[in-house]
Every structure is written in C-alpha cells, then in structure tokens.
Specification:
single chain, 131 residues, alpha+beta, 3 helices
Length: 131
C-alpha cells in the first residue's frame, strides 16, 4: 500500500459521520511522505520542535505547538509517543512511530477522541509493521 493510500483510506476515513479536516505522514526528518490536499505547509523548525518534544516531553507546553504557522495549546498526551494540541473547537493529534509522525487535524463536529483513535490506531499499526 502506498503512503498516500494510508492517508486517503485510513486517516481521512469517515467515523460516525465525521472525518479529519487534514492529515499527513511525515518522516522524522520533516520530509512529507503523504498528505491530504488540505494539509498546511509545515516548516522544518515546526517538525524539529515536535521531535524535540518527543525526546523531552513538555518542551512545547510553554510556547505552544506550531503546525503550518497555526498555534495549538499542548494538552495531555503520552510522553514520547503522542502529542495532542487544541485550538478553539478543533485540534491536532501527532503519533510518533519508529520512522514517521502521523498527524491528524480536526474541527467540530469531530470530537478529540475520534481524532485520537484514527491517528493512534494507524500509528500503532505502523509501529507493529516496523515503521
């Protein structure tokens, strides 16, 4: 399966009538493996800051999480594995695998838990597959 198919078929799938507003699979080096048409243009320093937070959990909390120039307030995640951010009625979930970051961005009416489930389920699968 191509990386784009993982984005199109798994991350952008419909769940209880809702779907993510955008999604991507990004290498640890910041290279875009696949993304939805609506995914924002991310800056290398944004990916570097995210990777640093996985190595030093809590480092993004004081400044916020930036993705495509949009600032998200960092909320609870799983140290070294998942970062979650909130902005107004929407937010972002980022799951780290061995080689990539799985990113899902959502807005209402999708619930944060639905976004978490979609992103983390694919991330767990890719971890099992050695990615």
């Amino acid at each position: 399966m191509s990386w784009q198919a993982y984005v199109d078929d798994h991350l952008m799938c419909e769940i209880e009538g809702n779907h993510l507003s955008s999604a991507a699979i990004i290498g640890h080096d910041g290279s875009i493996w696949a993304q939805s048409a609506t995914f924002p243009q991310v800056k290398p320093e944004e990916i570097t800051a995210i990777m640093n937070d996985f190595d030093e959990p809590g480092s993004l909390a004081p400044t916020g999480l930036y993705l495509g120039g949009t600032k998200y307030m960092v909320i609870q995640g799983e140290a070294g594995a998942v970062i979650r951010g909130k902005k107004g009625p929407g937010g972002v979930t980022i799951k780290k695998t061995g080689m990539s970051l799985i990113v899902g961005i959502y807005d209402e009416p999708m619930a944060p838990g639905q976004c978490n489930m979609i992103v983390e389920r694919l991330g767990d699968y890719l971890l099992e597959q050695g990615f």
